[in-house]
């Protein structure tokens, strides 16, 4: 059995193949390639299902071991160590995030998840379908109008980024005129996290502490206002009456929903569109109705997972495969590799929608994304709304990718609507790369931000 020591400068006794993979994985972590999931992910599950990396890091890549690690009670999401200047300038936000759902002990984590879970079951999500469909229809009309005026539209900023906060605003129980505040506040909180660490990409202006306090006060008032019966606010009001959670916990859960299920869903929707544009035969099958939209969504996200890694910290020793992992080790769950593990997916690189076992795109176990079905519904309805419009990338050179260790997705996708769908010629695709160096510390911060409802 192999043991990894957290303080060791490098892996202990790797094979030649493992040494080569180690170098390539570290290169990908430091310099991710936007627009293409690393080829190294295809090799990892078979060659090195558990790979020892420098600085006491362990990369787990086989589908079975990623699944086992995701459910292991010894592995938790590590606490985010905000820089001192952020703690000084944003004490209220830092205190909120440090005590949010992902960082609670197992009992409290499950207790609070149960309060939210009824909305994210298959029945609960299906009940939301008419509401989300209405939101998609109105948003689509806005996007079509913008494209008609300007000749093109950025499908990320105008469509993918706008749908999730509106859907979340409706789910929370906020009146429609406040849905825009969900987007602004949620992105401001995410930007507060990203801008706190030098190697994460902040897409928006960070929320100030005064802005966060005002948001928290608004959310707190929602617990006392009349709301529709099917909303999360109504569920939290009921849970408060039954003493299932404190008022502070209810407010914290609603605040978390402002910042989760926004960037991840936007990335998922964008990746699904790009996956179709890059596969002419798959696009033709879907347009002809030979492939169901929900199957397209699942297969696209298997092959192009928006979150390639999940970061964990071993609070107790555990064994994965033949590797003994001491407490204190950083464990990286390579979701992107597990999704193409040939031991689980026959011919994993082939596009075979509707025939695959479930992928691990949305995680597994304690931190599985609570809103996975809600995310899938939004992608499905949005894709069906785009189907009759047609989508064509107007300029490959202006397609920009966010591909740090945390996210793999375009940040800008300029398209024309109308005239039918036009697949991308991958031989001449010259998408612009916007990449940054990343480290484990900043990746852990981003992973915590993306998993706070898991």
TrEMBL record:
Residues 431-447 have a biased composition (Low complexity). Transmembrane segments: none annotated. Residues 431-454 are annotated as: Disordered. Pfam families: p450. GO terms for molecular function: heme binding; iron ion binding; monooxygenase activity; oxidoreductase activity, acting on paired donors, with incorporation or reduction of molecular oxygen. InterPro entries: Cyt_P450, Cyt_P450_B, Cyt_P450_sf. Belongs to the cytochrome P450 family. This is Cytochrome P450. The lineage of its organism: Bacteria, Bacillati, Actinomycetota, Actinomycetes, Micrococcales.
């Amino acid at each position: 059995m192999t043991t990894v020591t957290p303080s060791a400068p490098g892996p202990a006794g790797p094979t030649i193949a493992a040494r080569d993979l180690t170098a390539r994985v570290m290169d990908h972590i430091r310099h991710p390639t936007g627009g293409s999931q690393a080829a190294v992910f295809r090799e990892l599950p078979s060659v090195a299902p558990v790979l020892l990396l420098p600085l006491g890091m362990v990369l787990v890549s086989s589908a079975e071991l990623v699944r086992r690690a995701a459910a292991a009670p010894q592995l938790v999401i590590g606490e985010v160590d905000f820089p001192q200047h952020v703690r000084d300038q944003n004490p209220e936000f830092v205190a909120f995030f440090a005590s949010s759902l992902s960082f609670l002990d197992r009992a409290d984590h499950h207790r609070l998840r149960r309060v939210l879970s009824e909305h994210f079951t298959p029945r609960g999500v299906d009940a939301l379908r008419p509401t989300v469909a209405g939101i998609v229809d109105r948003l689509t009309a806005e996007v079509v109008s913008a494209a008609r005026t300007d000749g093109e539209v950025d499908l990320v900023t105008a469509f993918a980024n706008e749908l999730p906060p509106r859907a979340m605003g409706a789910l929370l129980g906020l009146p429609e005129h406040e849905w825009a505040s969900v987007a602004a506040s949620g992105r401001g909180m995410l930007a507060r996290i990203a801008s706190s660490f030098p190697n994460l990409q902040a897409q928006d202006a960070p929320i100030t502490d005064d802005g966060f306090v005002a948001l928290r006060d608004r959310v707190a008032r929602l617990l006392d206002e009349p709301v529709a019966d099917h909303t999360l606010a109504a569920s939290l009001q009921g849970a408060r009456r039954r003493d299932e959670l404190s008022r502070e916990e209810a407010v914290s859960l609603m605040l978390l929903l402002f910042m989760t299920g926004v960037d991840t869903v936007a990335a998922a929707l964008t990746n699904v569109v790009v996956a179709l544009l890059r596969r002419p035969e798959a696009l033709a099958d879907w347009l002809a109705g030979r492939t169901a939209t929900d199957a397209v969504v699942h297969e696209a996200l298997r092959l192009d997972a928006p979150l390639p890694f999940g970061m964990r910290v071993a609070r107790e020793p555990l064994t994965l495969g033949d590797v003994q992992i001491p407490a204190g080790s950083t464990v990286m769950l390579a979701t992107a590799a597990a999704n193409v593990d040939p031991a689980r997916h026959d011919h994993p690189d082939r596009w075979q929608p509707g025939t695959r076992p479930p992928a691990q795109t949305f995680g597994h176990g304690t931190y599985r994304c609570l809103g996975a079905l809600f995310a899938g519904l939004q992608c499905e309805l949005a894709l069906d709304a785009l189907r009759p419009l047609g989508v064509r990338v107007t300029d490959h050179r202006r397609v920009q990718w966010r591909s740090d260790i945390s996210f793999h997705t375009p940040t800008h996708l300029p398209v024309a609507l109308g005239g039918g769908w036009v697949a991308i010629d991958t031989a001449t695709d010259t998408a612009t790369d916007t990449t940054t160096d990343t480290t484990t510390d900043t990746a852990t911060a981003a992973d915590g931000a993306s998993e706070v409802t898991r």
